[in-house]
Write a structure and sequence with these properties.
7-stranded mixed β-sheet, alpha/beta, 2 domains, 11 helices, Rossmann fold, 368 residues, Quinone Oxidoreductase, Chain A, domain 1
Length: 368
């Protein structure tokens, strides 16, 4: 197959031919239909997040089951599935208490780049050198092999490029609102960052019935896009003071909930400062490894502000992801508006250039 390989950080992805081994026990072979171009992969490409290299990147994807290994019962060939970059076992304390995103079953694959038996299913077509897995998904290739626990079967009539986005950006943004913060109808919400995750957060806020949804970003066309997804007010942070504008828009009170969807310590601090007394700030964007944030201990205690993290939208994937697709198919969640451009795998480096330039909401890599 053809795949995009990261050989070393701060270098373009290499398009190369890769051989894919058949799935072993407990594994599933997938023909990838679409993969989202996400900033989290760029963090790895830029060296902000560690990964074992060389590896086939891509963690936001969907496709069709081609084959299953021994003992697999969750899916069968022909099933349409969303790929999960955080697999969950369904049995540990985290899974049993409704927090499967925190399950550790997928961490071994994430940190070693190999399947649980210690080997990779990917090898270069020329020379046979091993290529690592990434996040247990590696959907920047025409085919992949994943754990049985890393797939969610979905309805066959849902577009797979939409399903791919549900696998990361949509679930992360909507889930942060619905699952993590549990925003109440009539609330005021601030979203800092209007990329794919930020716009999904806006959709989540609208879905819960938030009365005021304020979006802040540095890029004018992203702010314009946010209005299509339900934003009531926008802040051009390139020329306006975000905190001052939030106060002006909320009668000096601050918002009930604020979501940081970029991944910088500066904007996370703003997020905390922007919430009212008793308000909740939610960290959604992934900051570089080792980054630290400072908040006012005075406000934390005397104003009873809360700062919480949201990983993968606190998802319960087998419950949440099919429901999000149902909402889309019912016309209640405009996920198709997220897709600004489609690229073949050969143009993936151009797709990342466009993402970093702020030209798109979300791009997808599509495979024939």
């Amino acid at each position: 197959m053809k795949a995009a390989i990261l050989n070393e950080t701060k270098q373009p992805l290499e398009i190369a031919e890769v051989e894919v081994d058949p799935p072993k026990a407990g594994e599933v072979a997938i023909k990838v239909a679409a993969a989202g171009v996400c900033h989290s992969d760029y963090h790895v490409m830029n060296g902000d997040l560690p990964a074992t290299l060389p590896a086939i990147l891509g963690h936001e994807g969907a496709g069709v089951v081609e084959a299953v290994g021994e003992g697999v019962t969750a899916v069968k060939p022909g099933d349409h599935v969303i790929l999960l970059f955080r697999a969950s076992c369904g049995r540990c304390d985290y899974c049993s208490t409704g927090h499967p995103a925190l399950c550790g079953i997928g961490q071994k694959v994430r940190w070693t780049g190999r399947m649980p038996d210690g080997t990779s299913r990917f090898h270069r077509a020329q020379g046979g050198d091993e290529v690592k897995h990434f996040a247990g998904v590696s959907c920047f290739g025409e085919r992949t092999v994943v754990l049985e626990e890393a797939v969610v079967p979905i309805r066959h009539d849902a577009p797979l490029e939409i399903a791919a986005l549900v696998g990361c950006a949509v679930m992360t943004g909507v889930g942060a609102v619905v699952n993590t913060a549990r925003v109440e109808p009539g609330s005021s919400v601030l979203v800092i960052g209007a990329g794919g995750v930020g716009l999904s957060t806006v959709m989540g806020a609208q879905l819960t019935g938030a009365e005021k949804i304020i979006v802040a970003d540095l890029v004018a066309n992203k702010l314009e896009m946010s209005l299509e997804f339900g934003a009531t007010d926008t802040i051009d942070a390139s020329r306006e003071d975000t905190l001052a504008r939030v106060k002006a828009l909320t009668n000096e009170r601050g918002v009930d909930y604020a979501f940081e969807a970029i991944g910088t310590t500066r904007t996370l601090t703003q997020c905390f400062q922007a919430v009212r007394r008793g308000g909740t700030a939610v960290a959604v964007g992934v900051a570089p490894a080792g980054a630290e944030v400072s908040v006012s201990a005075f406000d934390l205690v005397l104003q009873e502000k809360a700062l919480i993290g949201s990983f993968y939208g606190s998802t319960r994937p087998h419950h949440d992801m099919p429901r999000l697709l149902d909402l889309y198919m019912a016309g209640k969640l405009p996920l198709d508006k997220l897709i600004t451009r489609r690229y073949p795998i050969d143009e993936i480096n151009e797709a990342y250039r466009a993402m970093m330039a702020g030209e798109v909401a979300r791009s997808v890599i599509t495979y024939s």
